[in-house]
């Protein structure tokens, strides 16, 4: 039994495991009970993820991000789905150890891989466990939207198809709105850009969302590019293992007199409100916003999860790590608040 009683930081919450569901031979879902006093904190959008604190004999703990496969519109309790990866400490620990009744420390939902409008026509791509956030979006759009949905789901063989029964039931229940296309490697080979482009050409006007291994998403990007799908209608979810400890409370930002004198000014729009802040050039945007008591979205602070993605409307920043962003993202003004430091004297940024 895994028992955690006291969270390690002010942002995290200890959740009880309500159930563990075997999805395939190497994937399981963890369903959480959320205490009444934390329900507001754990409201989430379709496609977001949770960060779990997993014990480790070597480091004390590791942090791992797992997408919510549940829908806030159809499921009473949040559920993450975890698939074993070769050599993956976190995924194997979860699948081997977590049982109903256990408790796990969890950060509130985060992430920006979510449709702005559930009425949009959606073209969804998933490969392997990449189906997880896509499933949350799919179920939410069926429940609360009115558009058409096409899912292309790639796996090695039928035994690896997570949510196979549920997808079949949803397609049968919504035949006018949902099309599910399975791409099985043992029958069709690996997905190719040409094959994917031919497959989804009739749906090139839809909003595309993709999640899966990098080679798969590279081919999807290539396929959508051949169909002239604009970057504004293409959304990708990328996860990397986190090296730091997002569960620990951040130390107060200390700013010297010289740093304060040379600071930039930034107008930050967050949840519809604009805040004008002094932004020392050695500090990240997330650090400064946290020091002012603002509820800035963030998770890893390593530039690996994308939770703090925002848009530069005016001014220029530099980023220590921006690999999670595509060149097109950066060209369109997207930055990572946890990596961004000011270059110009005045900036406007929108979350």
UniProtKB/TrEMBL annotation:
Its cofactor is FAD. This is Ferredoxin--NADP reductase. Keywords: 2Fe-2S, FAD, Flavoprotein, Iron, Iron-sulfur, Metal-binding, Oxidoreductase. CDD domains: fer2, PA_degradation_oxidoreductase_like. PROSITE patterns: 2FE2S_FER_1, 2FE2S_FER_2, FAD_FR. Residues 264-351 form the 2Fe-2S ferredoxin-type domain. Gene3D superfamilies: 3.10.20.30, Nucleotide-binding domain of ferredoxin-NADP reductase (FNR) module, Translation factors. PANTHER family: 1,2-PHENYLACETYL-COA EPOXIDASE, SUBUNIT E, NADH OXIDOREDUCTASE HCR. Residues 10-116 form the FAD-binding FR-type domain. It holds the Pfam family Fer2.
């Amino acid at each position: 039994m895994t028992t955690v009683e006291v969270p390690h930081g002010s942002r995290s919450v200890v959740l009880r495991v309500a159930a563990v569901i075997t999805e395939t031979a190497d994937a399981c879902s963890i369903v959480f009970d959320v205490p009444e006093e934390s329900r507001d904190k754990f409201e989430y959008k379709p496609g977001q993820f949770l960060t779990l604190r997993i014990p480790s004999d070597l480091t004390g703990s590791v942090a791992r991000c797992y997408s919510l496969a549940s829908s806030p519109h159809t499921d009473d309790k949040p559920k993450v789905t975890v698939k074993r990866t070769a050599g993956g400490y976190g995924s194997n620990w979860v699948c081997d150890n977590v049982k109903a009744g256990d408790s796990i420390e969890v950060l509130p939902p985060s992430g920006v891989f979510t449709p702005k409008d559930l009425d949009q026509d959606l073209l969804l791509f998933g490969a392997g466990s990449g189906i997880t956030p896509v499933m949350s979006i799919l179920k939410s759009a069926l429940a609360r939207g009115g558009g058409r949905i096409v899912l292309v789901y790639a796996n090695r063989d039928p035994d690896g198809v997570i949510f196979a029964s549920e997808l079949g039931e949803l397609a049968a229940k919504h035949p006018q709105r949902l099309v599910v296309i399975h791409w099985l490697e043992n029958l069709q080979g690996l997905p190719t850009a040409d094959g994917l482009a031919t497959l989804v050409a009739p749906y090139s006007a839809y909003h595309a969302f993709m999640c899966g291994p990098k080679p798969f998403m590279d081919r999807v990007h290539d396929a959508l590019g051949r169909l002239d799908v604009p970057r504004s209608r293409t959304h990708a979810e990328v996860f990397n293992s986190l090296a730091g400890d997002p569960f620990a409370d951040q130390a107060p930002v200390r700013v010297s007199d010289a740093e304060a004198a040379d600071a930039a000014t930034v107008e930050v729009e967050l949840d519809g409100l604009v805040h004008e802040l002094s932004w020392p050039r050695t500090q990240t945007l997330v650090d400064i916003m946290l020091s002012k008591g603002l509820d800035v979205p963030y998770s890893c602070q390593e530039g690996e999860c994308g939770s703090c993605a925002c848009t530069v409307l005016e001014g220029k920043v530099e980023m220590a790590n921006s690999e999670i962003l595509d060149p097109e993202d950066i060209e369109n003004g997207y930055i990572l608040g946890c990596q961004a430091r000011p270059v110009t004297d005045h900036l406007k940024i929108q979350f």
